[in-house]
Design a protein that fits this description.
It is a single chain. The chain is mainly alpha-helical. It has 15 helices and three strands. The protein folds into two domains: 126 residues, DNA polymerase, domain 1 (Orthogonal Bundle), CATH 1.10.150; 164 residues, Intergrase catalytic core (hpI Integrase, Chain A), CATH 1.10.443.10. The protein has a three-stranded antiparallel beta sheet with strand order 1-2-3, with no helix packed on it.
């Protein structure tokens, strides 16, 4: 019996309407409507760039991807305390890359995101809207296996010993003892800190009640109390500079390098982000369960926690002999 070959027909009715809904023009209109509801630095420049991509016939998917990447970067940039795109520095881009890697994104996704941001910055440079200094050197992404390790414990003690500013000591001990991201620390307000319960509340967004809680060690609590007692109560953020209501990432990075140099550690290659790695590694090596550390670090994927918190040789040795002692005492059933 012969099989009938089905006849393919163009869908009746709204075929053109469906096609138009997925066109580059429709995608651009949608992202511009989203943009209109946002409060991010450089909003008007991003709108112009999206219209430019439409004019040069970029695909709808490309427009969507570029918008998402640039929007995330500008939001991060704004939360770091900056509002003028003319102040963009290489350090801002590097800090954003560290954040995206820390969120557990695949390196290919981070590369795609950075490529979209760099294309946007080139567009602004060509229009003389921002200086070209932030893109003079090529930005290299570190693969997950080469992410920074924890600081040497002796180096940590040397660093803490040379910090003579009450504000800076509070900031660096907060990063070291809570493991929060630098952007999270710089975004803190006084209401986020509960001195009585020794807690810091971190939220994912201004209108989002979801977040996590981290805890204050004795030394971090003492340093924060000293700083809160003398800070300017008229300032919105916990950490600020004389000329602004909040401290930006580049300022925090500069003061960290200043203390590294003072401690004779500038050749070690440490960055502010090493404090977070040190926190994770020290807690894991002190016996904290990986699942608990994951919550404190704010990682959605436990594999990211496992990548950031590296076991020391001593910890592996102790774990081996602890487990072997159980086996040798007959605590594990098995046929040999």
């Amino acid at each position: 019996m012969a099989h009938k070959i089905p006849i393919l027909r163009r869908p009746s009715g709204n075929y053109e309407a469906v096609r138009d809904r997925f066109s580059p023009q429709a995608h651009t209109d949608r992202v511009l409507r989203r943009l209109a509801r946002m409060e991010i630095p450089g909003k008007e420049h991003l709108e112009n760039y999206m219209r430019h991509k439409l004019r040069v016939n970029h695909k709808a998917r490309t427009i969507d991807s570029a918008f998402t990447s640039i929007m995330f970067f500008l939001d991060f940039y704004g939360k770091s305390g900056k509002t003028d795109l003319r102040d963009i520095e290489r350090a801002d881009l590097e800090a954003f890359i560290e954040q995206e890697q820390d969120r557990g994104l695949y390196i290919s996704s981070v590369r795609t995101r950075v490529a979209s941001i760099i294309a946007f910055l080139h567009f602004l440079i060509e229009q003389d809207l921002i200086p070209g200094s932030c893109l003079k050197k090529r930005i290299r992404l570190k693969l997950p296996d080469t992410l920074p390790r924890a600081m040497n414990p002796f180096d940590v003690r040397k660093l803490i010993a040379v910090i003579d500013s009450i504000r800076d000591r509070a900031l660096i001990l907060l990063l070291l003892r809570t493991g929060i991201r630098i952007g999270e620390a710089l975004g803190l307000t006084v209401d986020d800190i509960d001195i009585g319960d020794r807690k810091v509340h971190l939220f994912e967004g201004e209108k989002n009640s979801m977040g996590r809680v981290v805890y204050l060690s004795d030394d971090a609590l003492f340093a924060l109390k000293r700083w809160l007692a003398q800070r300017d109560t008229g300032k919105e953020h916990v950490f600020y500079t004389r000329c602004s209501s909040g401290m930006c990432y580049s300022t925090a990075r500069t003061l960290f390098f200043k203390y590294l140099k003072k401690a004779g550690l500038e050749h070690k290659g440490y960055t502010v982000h090493y404090l977070r790695h040190t926190f994770a590694s020290e807690l894991l090596n002190a016996g904290m369960r990986l699942e608990c550390l994951q919550q404190l670090m704010g990682h959605q994927d436990i594999e990211v926690t496992r990548r950031y918190a590296r076991l020391t040789d001593r910890t592996r040795e102790e774990e081996y002999f602890r487990a072997m002692a159980v086996i040798e005492k007959g605590g594990v059933d098995g046929d040999y």
